[in-house]
Amino acid sequence: MSAGAVARDPVVERIEALKKSREAIILAHNYQIGEIQEVADFVGDSLELSRYAARTSHPVIVFCGVHFMAETAKVLSPDKTVVVPDLRAGCPMSDMITPEEVRALRARHPEAIVVTYVNSSAAVKAESDICCTSANAVAIVNSIPADRPILFIPDRYLGEYVQRQTGRDLLLYSGFCPTHVRIMASDIARERESHPDALVIAHPECPAPVAEAADVVASTSRMASEVRLSDKKTVIVGTELGMIHRLSRENPEKTFIPACQTCDCANMKVNSLERLLWALEDLSPEIRLSDEVIAGARRALDRMLEVS
């Protein structure tokens, strides 16, 4: 090695070599640890990752996120091998509702259109009429005839946000994101006092008082564009802490202040570079779904993609 040269991480080198030999693509959610974001081919939110998975020609997708996201990739690309670094990377919100509960809700509200947030299992999506993400939930609800009741599952806080934006009266399920509910309006007020000229951004999974205290309520993809376009040099970030890595990388001249210092999603952070390497080596753990679930979930996702 020449004088002054910086040694490369051997794990990263092995990942890059295996990615080529496996003809694999690495997709990572905005909340992943920085090291994974740096080796990923594409970093984005649920909607961006879903679209990328659907159009990629790579036969192997390594999905660094939580389990339901990898399932979505498999539904949209059933002929591809979809693997994850760690099956333990689940989603508490997704676990809050089951297919059986969706069927029971349908029985109680037979006229309702079931709109399901993508933060749900493929089996739950298969019981739904149409899916949505935080980026397109308002557009999805607005696309449904005004005379049809809407059952919105599973996130009540995203549902409340959509109600405020659309004026529609939704039938809300009681699910929530344990990370976003920890962000408080008092957190925003405290940071605003310290940084009065800052831009405040918050995710629509946050409770209403937080959303109302923010300047911009947006999905993580829109957060990135809002920050990029803003002339504000300081940004208070009301979402999971992993988002700050992407924002800092794309806007090195700006300062990012987490609204909540402890709002780290432990499930997102289960994944590591070492486990990503092992997934590429073994092409495992692999996401497997029944044809029936894939067909049902695909219908709901395709309807979403048509609208958005």
From TrEMBL:
EC nos: 2.5.1.72
Pfam families linked to this entry: NadA
Pathway(s) of this molecule: Cofactor biosynthesis; NAD(+) biosynthesis; quinolinate from iminoaspartate: step 1/1
Molecular-function GO term, any one: metal ion binding
Binding site for iminosuccinate: H29, S46, Y117, V118, N119, S134, H203, P204, E205, T220
Top-level enzyme category: transferase
Cofactor(s) demanded: [4Fe-4S] cluster
Localization: Cytoplasm
GO biological process, any: 'de novo' NAD+ biosynthetic process from L-aspartate
InterPro entries cross-referenced by the UniProt entry: NadA (IPR003473), NadA_sf (IPR036094), Quinolinate_synth_type2 (IPR023066)
Cofactor annotation remark: Binds 1 [4Fe-4S] cluster per subunit.
Reaction(s) the record says it catalyses: iminosuccinate + dihydroxyacetone phosphate = quinolinate + phosphate + 2 H2O + H(+)
Protein keywords: 4Fe-4S, Cytoplasm, Iron, Iron-sulfur, Metal-binding, Pyridine nucleotide biosynthesis, Transferase
Residue sites binding [4Fe-4S] cluster per the record: C91, C177, C265
GO CC aspect terms: cytosol
UniProt record similarity statement: Belongs to the quinolinate synthase family. Type 2 subfamily.
PANTHER family: QUINOLINATE SYNTHASE, CHLOROPLASTIC, QUINOLINATE SYNTHETASE A
Main function: Catalyzes the condensation of iminoaspartate with dihydroxyacetone phosphate to form quinolinate.
Name listed for the protein in its UniProt record: Quinolinate synthase
Organism, as annotated: Leptospirillum ferrodiazotrophum
Gene name of this polypeptide: nadA
